[in-house]
Amino acid sequence: MYSTTVLTAFVAQHYLTVPDPGPEGVPHSHHFEVELTFRGPELNEYDYLVDIDDARAALEHIADRYRDQLLNDLPEFEGYNPSVERFARVVFDRVTDVVTDDTVTELAVTIWEDETAAATYDAAV
């Protein structure tokens, strides 16, 4: 299995909406790092798994969408607790809409909210 990873970082804000969230229940910032890992068993005719320029463009679009935003205010989080786990799924859905290389069979999105805590959503594409 081949894999190709691209990453970026940006600052965004959120607050948790679960009962008794403690200090996480007030708006606060995170320096998020987002990793996209594309996987597949075959390379294309140019010996690429994924067009890395397309992967980077998708990641840049993600960073532009969420940089300096309050996640709670965005429509993709409406009705959801904007946890880092939910954020990983939201990013997964956005990336799989735009990066459609036939050789990519799986995508893992890992979002780090600080240097010691991250969540990953991965699935077949």
Automatic annotation (TrEMBL):
GO terms for molecular function: lyase activity; metal ion binding. Its cofactor is Zn(2+). It holds the Pfam family PTPS. InterPro entries: 6-PTP_synth/QueD, 6-PTP_synth/QueD_sf. Coiled coil: none annotated. Transmembrane segments: none annotated. Keywords: Lyase, Metal-binding, Zinc. SUPFAM superfamilies: Tetrahydrobiopterin biosynthesis enzymes-like. This is 6-carboxytetrahydropterin synthase.
